[in-house]
Amino acid sequence: MLLLVGVAPPKVTAIRSSQSLALLRARDQCSRALTPAQRLQLDKMQYEDAPHVRLYLHCFWARLQLWQDASGFQAERIIQSFGGERRLNVEQALPAINGCNAKTRSRESGSGSGSVSESQAVVDWCFRAFTCVMATPVGDWYKRHMSDVINGNA
Question: What contacts 146, CB < 8 A, 6 or more positions away?
Fold first, then answer.
């Protein structure tokens, strides 16, 4: 009779890139205030227009230093961070990201000069710019890439 007590199978850990680890860290840090259902929704890349989604997206992109409140998404840094020309069509990505920054910024709605309304306007702009990018081929690539990261394949 063979007795196996306290013997655990060896752990197989996927080798993740530093970029993938940064994405996972930002995702975890920015989702701390979310309910499990909200977190699952975001993991499925369902970005409804809701306050928790807007705050999460701003936190996520700002934490990665790929969003600046004064200028929006940092298109060139995003492309470099996500593998550059090896993984992304730069001629398509740059104008898509920069175009969404510009198009959604002009719709900024600030009513007053309080820091709360300015802060909210930036969070709203980030959400609008993100959903704009998601409607482009860059959004399709992002969904595939994030799915790979979340599932341990990147």
Answer: 23, 45
Backbone angles phi, psi at 119, to 5 degrees: -60, -45
For the chain, domains (ranges, CATH) are 18-150 (1.10.238.20)
The per-residue pLDDT for range 85-109, each reduced to its tens digit, is 877 888 999 999 999 999 999 654 4
On whether the CB atoms of residues 91 and 138 are closer than 8 A, the answer is: no
Distance CA(130)–CA(127), nearest Å, equals 5
Residue-wise pLDDT for 2-44, tens only, equals 444 444 444 445 577 788 899 999 999 999 999 999 999 998 9
d(CA 135, CA 92): 13
